Amino acid sequence: MDAGFPRSVVIYGAGLMGTSFALALKRRPSTGSPVRIYAVDRPDVLQRASLHGAFEGSGESQDVDLIVLAAPVGQILKLLETLEPGRAIILDLGSTKVEICKTAERRRLPFIGGHPMTGSERSGPEAASAELFKGAPFFLCPIASTPGRAAVELEDLIRSIGGTPLQITAEEHDRIVARLSHLPQLVSTLLADYASDHRDLAGPGWKSLTRLAASPFHVWRDILQTSGYLPGELRAFIERLQSLLTALEANDLGEIEAVFRRANRAVSEETRE
């Protein structure tokens, strides 16, 4: 394993995630020579990202040992069709993994799927932070063409920027993330839309629950199209809502209390962790 990995990086996408990844790499403990990081994005995005000083410049033709795809899922899929196998490990940061991993495997790329469970309702390089990955689970999804060294080197890299690497299959990832990330986004968005007429009267509870509703749709369009497990999770959630409604209409407060108690325990356990 190369203790200095990576020495040079190209990041496709200089938005929130790509610029944050670059900043985190720049500020991690020294491994010798400083890492050189280049970005590929629209000129206006690169100009805004340059204010952070995270990138040496732009360019996709650089000879690097790590390529990071930090674009929306649809763009990642297109990029995977254009990249050719080489010495560089390819890591993506997309929020769904099955379609991405299938495409990379079909093209026999030196690829490993990645997804840090972190982010913000804000977007763009202005929202970037070197601390974004601190304490966050960071999924890694190897495929048949993943180089033998890639998983170990990327696990070490993720730890060096404060994340917690977890290896998992693409299918397991998409099932878990549909429940923990994609479903909450829809619930938050729907609640904000449903109660928007009275938002000026809302207290902190409504504001906390609707924070995710500030997320722009262009970020979520591709996620919703490729999140194959989300419809099932949404149906299951609707069934739970229906059960709650049935208990409420029957004045069955014992059933509702049981839900509260399970939720209280879940939140308390998370706080202790």
List the helices and strands and how they pair.
Blueprint: E1 8-12, H1 16-27, E2 36-40, H2 43-49, E3 57-58, E4 66-69, H3 73-82, E5 89-92, H4 98-106, E6 111-116, E7 137-142, H5 150-160, E8 164-167, H6 170-194, H7 204-209, H8 217-226, H9 230-249, H10 253-272
Parallel strand pairs: 1-2, 1-4, 2-3, 4-5, 5-6, 7-8
Antiparallel strand pairs: 6-7
CATH class of the largest domain: Alpha Beta
CATH architecture of the largest domain: 3-Layer(aba) Sandwich
* Count of alpha/pi helices: 10
Read across the widest sheet, the strand sequence of neighbours is 3-2-1-4-5-6-7-8
| Radius of gyration over all CA atoms, rounded | 21 Å
**Global structural class:** alpha/beta
Overall tally of domains = 2
> Could you state the order of secondary-structure elements as H and E?
EHEHEEHEHEEHEHHHHH
Spans of at least 5 consecutive residues with low confidence: none
Beta-strand percent range: 5-15%
Mean of the pLDDT scores?
Answer: 92
Between the first and last Cα atoms, what is the distance in angstroms? 32 Å
In the CATH hierarchy, what is the superfamily of the largest domain? NAD(P)-binding Rossmann-like Domain
Q: Overall 3D geometry?
A: globular
- Please give the largest β-sheet: 8 strands, mixed
The CATH topology of the largest domain, please?
Rossmann fold
Helix content: 40-55%
Number of strands: 8
